[in-house]
């Protein structure tokens, strides 16, 4: 199952901060006009995840938005759109409404129709769907739009994510890498040919790719490391072959459906601990919002970053630079720590 990155409901004060952030996301503030550009964002199934925030940032500047949604949640997502459940979250800074022009069913662990096993074909959650593999979606996009400008990979899955690496099975390890890393490679293989020269592709990663994050298991740390390495190689290959830029964002901890799955029953969740740790130890001791990732993604996708490729951009309030936990009991009374600035 492809786990989509989601943020939690916010308290009033946090909503105010988020509202200010959205005001900063206006097309004027972002400084680029993307009218006529087409974006495909894989991994959108509601209005609270990273993918939605990126879509909204692009829509602010006039881009046409299309998305890929995991088949088992496709009907729920489309129904919610049609019933107006996301209308409030579709409002743009100038009063316009973001429109998702088309929702494609997408299961990114399958490249071609022949890859789909019988148990998936016969699964009632896939009933009536004939074209949901990466190659089929690419062909459908080409038929509908000719070429696109932006490709966003906002999905991941580690079926054994709660297991330590030493306890992860080969099947679980390979599944994590297939869904979370190779899927990006496959998307560029099939969608690179239908991307305009000067376009850009973007994925989302996590600092567990390069440092030890206890509790983030099942081969997911390996998958993120592969994703970042592939970003650099794909930047070279796709840059030369298609004239397309390839980057990734290493986002800080944010409560999401994917992250919330890294829990053990009866215990405080991994993501809750990670968020508290970040706010205590990061240089910028503040909340992280999906709009923060959206704004950074906009920059990397837009012409403002036309000379930027092969980059892992950290959007984590600076947590990645820290080599010591300032709230460690080992430091009690022995280290002067400045108080964070309050807003």
The H-level CATH homologous superfamily, spelled out, is NAD(P)-binding Rossmann-like Domain
Q: List the domain count as a whole number.
A: 1
Specify the overall morphology. globular
The number of E-state strands comes to 7
N to C succession of SSEs: HHEHEHHEHHEHEHEHHHE
Strand order of the largest sheet: 3-2-1-4-5-6-7
Low-confidence stretches are 1-14
Structural class of the helices, strands and pairings? alpha/beta
- Fraction in beta strands: 5-15%
Radius of gyration: 20 Å
Largest sheet data? 7 strands, parallel
Enter the CATH topology name: Rossmann fold
What is the CATH class name? Alpha Beta
Number of helices: 12
Mean pLDDT: 89
N- to C-terminal distance: 39 Å
Using the 3D structure, state the CATH architecture.
3-Layer(aba) Sandwich
Helix content: 25-40%
Keywords: Fatty acid biosynthesis, Fatty acid metabolism, Lipid biosynthesis, Lipid metabolism, Oxidoreductase
Protein name: Enoyl-ACP reductase
Pathway: Lipid metabolism
Organism: Chrysophaeum taylorii
């Amino acid at each position: 199952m492809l786990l989509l990155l989601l943020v939690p409901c916010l308290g009033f004060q946090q909503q105010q901060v988020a509202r200010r952030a959205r005001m900063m996301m206006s097309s004027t503030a972002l400084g680029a006009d993307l009218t006529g550009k087409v974006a495909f964002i894989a991994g959108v199934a509601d209005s609270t995840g990273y993918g939605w925030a990126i879509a909204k940032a692009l829509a602010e500047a006039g881009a046409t938005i299309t998305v890929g949604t995991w088949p088992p949640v496709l009907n729920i997502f489309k129904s919610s759109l049609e019933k107006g459940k996301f209308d409030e979250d579709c409002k743009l800074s100038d009063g316009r409404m973001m429109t998702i022009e088309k929702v494609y069913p997408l299961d990114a662990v399958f490249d071609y129709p022949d890859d789909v096993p019988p148990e998936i074909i016969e699964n009632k959650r896939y009933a009536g769907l004939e074209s949901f593999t990466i190659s089929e979606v690419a062909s459908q996009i080409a038929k509908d739009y000719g070429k696109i400008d932006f490709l966003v990979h906002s999905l991941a899955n580690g079926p054994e994510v709660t297991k330590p690496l030493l306890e992860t099975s080969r099947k679980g390890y390979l599944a994590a890498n297939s869904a979370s890393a190779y899927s990006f490679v496959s998307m560029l293989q099939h969608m690179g040919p239908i991307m305009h020269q000067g376009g850009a592709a973007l994925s989302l990663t996590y600092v567990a790719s390069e440092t030890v994050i206890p509790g983030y298991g099942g081969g997911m740390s390996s998958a993120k490391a592969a994703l970042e390495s592939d970003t650099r190689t794909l930047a070279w290959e796709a840059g030369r072959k298609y004239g397309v830029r390839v980057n990734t964002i290493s986002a800080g901890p944010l409560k999401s459906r994917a992250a919330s799955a890294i829990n053990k029953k009866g215990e405080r969740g991994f993501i809750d601990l990670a968020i508290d740790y970040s706010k205590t130890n990061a240089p910028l001791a503040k909340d992280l919002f999906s709009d923060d990732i959206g704004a950074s993604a906009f920059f990397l996708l837009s012409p403002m970053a036309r000379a930027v490729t092969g980059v892992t951009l950290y959007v984590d309030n600076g947590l990645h630079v820290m080599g010591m936990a300032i709230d460690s009991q080992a430091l009690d009374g022995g280290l002067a720590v400045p108080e964070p600035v309050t807003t």
